[in-house]
Request: fold
Amino acid sequence: MKIANTEKALPQSGVQDADIVYVEQVEGGATRLMAVYSSELPERVGPVRSARISDLHLLAQFGRPAFAFSGVQSKMKKNIRQAPSYDVSQENGGSAYFRAGPKPIPYNLYADPRDLLELAPGATGPRDIGFRFGDAPDGGEPTKSFTAKWPAASMGFTWSAKEKRWLASFDGRPDVSAEGGRLGGATVVVQYAKTTRSKFHDSLGHYTPLIETTGTGRALVLRDGKGYDARWSRPSEGQGTTFTTADGKPMTFAPGQVWVVLVNEGGPVIP
Reply:
C-alpha cells in the first residue's frame, strides 16, 4: 500500500503493522512509503496516495501481490496493467476505500487491507524475497542513530535499548503513529541505489525519480544498536534482494519489522 509521508499526512495509520516499510523518493525531493503486509492486517491504512514507477520495480520480487494506491497518472496506466500485481487501487477498490478524519483531501483517504485482499483472491502469499533473519553477525559498529536525507525530507532512526528497535523521526520530530507510539523497526536497511530521472513527471513538471533497485550496491544495516556495512544484490526484478556482510556472509536481520530506506548513491539529488 502506498502511504503519504509528508508533514500534512502525519500521523499515519497502520504503518506499525507492516512487515516491510519502504521509503522512496518522489517528485520534488519528498518521500512516500510503500508498506508491505502479510503477518498482520490492520483495519485502516493511510493516508493512501498514488503509485510511482519505482513501486512496480520493487513489487516484482513479491510474485503477484495486491497493490493498493489512490491513483496513477494516465501515462503510467499501461505500466500498471502490465505489472505482475493485482490492481486494487481506489479506482477498483469500491467501499474498501473511505475518507475520514479532519485532514483535507488528499490526506484523508484510507483503506481496509482485508477488504482489498478479497478483491484479489489469487494474490501471491508470503515468499522468499532474499531477507535472512537470525542472530546478529560478528562485527558492527555501535550506533546510536542515523539520519537518511533526501532533497526535501529527512528521516532519523534512534536505537532504543528498552524497546529493542529503532525509533523513527520525520524532519527532526518524533514520527508517531495515529494509533499511538513511535514508528520504527527492529531492523533498518539504508539501501544506496542510483536515483535517475524517469520518463514520467507530475502536473507541475517535476520529473518522477526512478530508483534502480536491481543490480548491486552498498547498504548500511542497523540492528541491535549497531551498524553493519553490507552489500545488496538483486540480479533481476523477479528475484529478491540479498544482503551480505563485508566478508560475504549473509547479513541477518533482527526478527520484526524491517524498514528499507532507499537513498541515492552519492547524496541527495533531484533528477
Summary: The longest strand covers residues 215-223. DSSP finds four helices and 22 strands in the chain. The helical segments are 53-59, 77-82, 90-93, 113-118. The chain has a mean pLDDT of 96.
